[in-house]
């Protein structure tokens, strides 16, 4: 868990640096601010953003690993899995693969590695092809509960105003 905190702290420092917005005017670095910001905000990175970002890298930074992915592709897929975990409690690998832009089998292999490495808390149901995220409550559920609570309070106020 320490490397993840270190990574988050590094992102935080970069995100808060006022020079980050200046990257947009440097030829070849136009995509960097958007990519770093979306990663810091735990948003899902899209394939076209990754392509723009990778185009600015040196050849040795585009080396393909044994799993057929570049280091950046692998990092973005892992980031996107974590971002999906903030939105969903569970997801089928077929759907996760579509979000990640990879085949469902590749998504399952990446997720399995993340779980084994302790980067992700979750479980895999291979029979149903389902990933279930453990730990934090998903953001959509929290949002739904907040809206429900607000509506309930609003109904109570409306009832009091009407004199019910």
Task: Please render the helix and strand layout as text.
Elements: H1 2-16, H2 32-40, H3 47-55, H4 71-87, E1 90-92, H5 93-100, H6 104-116, E2 122-125, E3 130-133, H7 139-162
Helix pairs in contact: 1-2, 4-6, 5-6
Question: Major sheet, described briefly?
Answer: 3 strands, antiparallel
Structural class: mainly alpha
Order of helices and strands: HHHHEHHEEH
Neighbour order of strands in the largest sheet: 1-3-2
Shape descriptor: flat
Mean pLDDT value: 80
- Uncertain residue segments: 1-6
Structure annotation, total helices:
7
Distance between the termini: 53 Å
β-sheet strand percentage: 5-15%
Percent of residues in helices: 55-70%
Number of strands: 3
Radius of gyration: 20 Å
């Amino acid at each position: 868990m320490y490397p993840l905190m270190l990574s988050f702290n590094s992102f935080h420092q970069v995100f808060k640096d006022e020079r980050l917005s200046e990257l947009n005017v440097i030829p070849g670095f136009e995509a960097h601010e958007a990519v770093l910001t979306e990663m810091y905000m735990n948003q899902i990175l899209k394939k076209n953003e990754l392509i723009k970002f990778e185009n600015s890298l040196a050849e040795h930074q585009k080396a393909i690993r044994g799993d057929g992915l570049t280091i950046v592709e692998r990092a973005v897929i892992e980031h996107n899995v974590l971002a999906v975990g903030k939105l969903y409690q569970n997801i089928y690998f077929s759907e996760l693969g579509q979000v990640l832009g990879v085949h469902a089998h590749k998504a399952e292999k990446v997720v399995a590695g993340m779980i084994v490495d302790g980067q992700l808390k979750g479980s895999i149901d291979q029979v149903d092809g389902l990933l279930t995220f453990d730990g934090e409550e998903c953001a959509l559920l929290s949002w739904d509960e907040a809206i429900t609570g607000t509506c309930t309070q609003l109904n109570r106020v409306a009832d009091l105003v009407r004199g019910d």
